[in-house]
Amino acid sequence: MSGENEMYASAKSAMQKTINHLESELSKIRAGKASPDILNGVVVDYYGNPTPINQVANVSVMDARTITVQPWEKNMLQPLERAIIAANIGINPQNDGNIIRLFLPPLTEERRKELVKKSNSEGEQAKVSIRNIRRDAIEQIKKEQKDGLSEDVARDYEGQIQGLTDKYIGIVDKYLETKEKEIMAI
What local confidence, expressed as pLDDT, does residue 32 receive? Predict the structure, then answer.
């Protein structure tokens, strides 16, 4: 009986990590309003070390379309500006010598559709990952069946893993639906 609990717990944990990764990726896709999350993953060269932007500057939202980046050290303005440009997030930084401002342009219908496509692509990757976790768990069950696990118990385990898979695929679909509404809202 312990094999099932371990397999189920392991599959559930791996699927949850997939959802956490999807949340992180979707938060980087901007949906019309300013969010510091847009700069997640942007690293700046801080005295030779690649450092996340939020560890060398205060990143805040000024209004619905403006993000400000206030470095803690003035000499970091240029490296911050270069890092934002290099991150290719589609926004040109405005450096006034004290602070960097990012003005988010209003999204065109075409750009919104591109962002929905990008979100769906992230969702599809998450679904593939969840299905791979299911496949690995089912292979493990079949292996244990060869080692003496009864057919009925194996079938129950497979059903539990399939139920878990369906649940997590549903979670991915909900995230994508929410993100699409967020992107398409004007």
Answer: 63
